[in-house]
Design goal:
Elements (H helix, E strand, L loop, with lengths): L2 E6 L6 H17 L5 E9 L1 H12 L7 E5 L14 E10 H11 L3 H16 L8 H17 L10 H6 L1
Parallel strand pairs: 1-2, 2-4
Antiparallel strand pairs: 3-4
Length: 166
């Protein structure tokens, strides 16, 4: 059985996002044909914690909207755990930054939070859009298809500030 562990370390109400994330996750499991039981945490953090984590773990000084940390380097479908359970790692989402980006890119908060979850989950699964154009296309294809499956049309928009962050 899959295990999504939610930790809300903010004052924001996040119950609506839990159901959304379960729906996205179930869509991803089907689309990606995952036959293992996955376990990972989704942590809602404030902007101070997000910035501190980004500085400490990535050596980048800005407030990220989502951070993902794998327990291993990537999901391996050949891995045979005794209980068929695979622990992936942790996703950290900063709702304050998500709200700012939703306004800047003309998305709803629900769309932005959905995107951040699937983006973080795909990183836990071993995808990395920063490795190559091919890897980016593969990851973004999954993002688009999974979000469309649950009725979200998300258009990725970048501005100069995003490119400068790297």
């Amino acid at each position: 059985m899959h295990e999504l562990l939610f930790n809300n370390l903010t004052d924001f109400k996040v119950d609506d996002f839990k159901k959304l994330y379960y729906d996205i996750f179930e869509s991803a499991v089907k689309k990606m044909e995952i036959d293992k039981n996955l376990s990972f945490s989704i942590n809602f953090i404030d902007e101070n914690e997000a910035r501190n984590m980004n500085i400490n773990y990535r050596n980048k000084d800005y407030i990220p909207d989502v951070l993902s940390f794998n327990i291993d380097t990537s999901y391996n479908p050949e891995y045979q755990a005794e209980d068929n359970q695979v622990e992936l790692g942790d996703i950290f989402i900063c709702q304050e930054e998500a709200q700012r980006k939703a306004l800047r890119y003309n998305h709803t908060l629900r769309e932005e939070m959905a995107f951040l979850f699937i983006h973080g989950f795909l990183h836990l699964m071993g995808f990395d859009h920063e490795l190559s154009q091919e890897e980016e296309e593969k990851m973004f294809h999954y993002q688009d298809q999974i979000l469309k499956e649950i009725g979200i049309e998300y258009k990725i928009t970048f501005d100069e500030q995003d490119y400068l962050r790297g």
